[in-house]
Amino acid sequence: MTAFVRVCALSELEEDTPKRVELDGTPVSVVRTSGEVFAIHDICSHANVSLSEGEVEDCQIECWLHGSTFDLRTGKPSGLPATRPVPVYPVKIEGDDVLVSVSQEN
Asked: How far apart are CA 100 and CA 40, in angstroms?
């Protein structure tokens, strides 16, 4: 069974502004964009830096250090220098609560 954990209130998420949270030691960037909420691993696969410090545009999050971009839906890199994807996590919205699961059963 997938364990979802409340990470924040939906009203706390500003459009296109990533929010860093930590779940069971896993850094996660939660992003509200285009009417949806996404959760993606917060560490760039190219350089060990936080993606939540980057910019969001067109369902992409950009690593602030070298400019790699990742698709928020799939985690796949869509811009060099990154070539490896980062994990994405399931999100549920219950009322004003944003819940994310980082369990291994995903």
From this structure: 10
Cite the beta strand spans of 34-90 per DSSP E: 36-41, 56-57, 60-62, 69-71, 77-79, 88-89
Tens digit of each residue's pLDDT (9 = 90 or more) over 5-33: 999 999 999 999 999 999 989 999 999 99
Q: By percentage, how much of the chain surpasses pLDDT 70?
A: 96
Q: Answer yes or no: are the C-beta atoms of 94 and 7 closer than 8 Å.
A: no
Give the single-character DSSP code of 64: T
Kindly report the pTM of this predicted structure.
0.93
3-state secondary structure the chain: CCCCEEEEEHHHCCECCCEEEEECCEEEEEEEECCEEEEEECECCCCCCEHHHCCEECCEEECCCCCCEEECCCCCEEECCCCCCCCEECEEEECCEEEECCCCCC
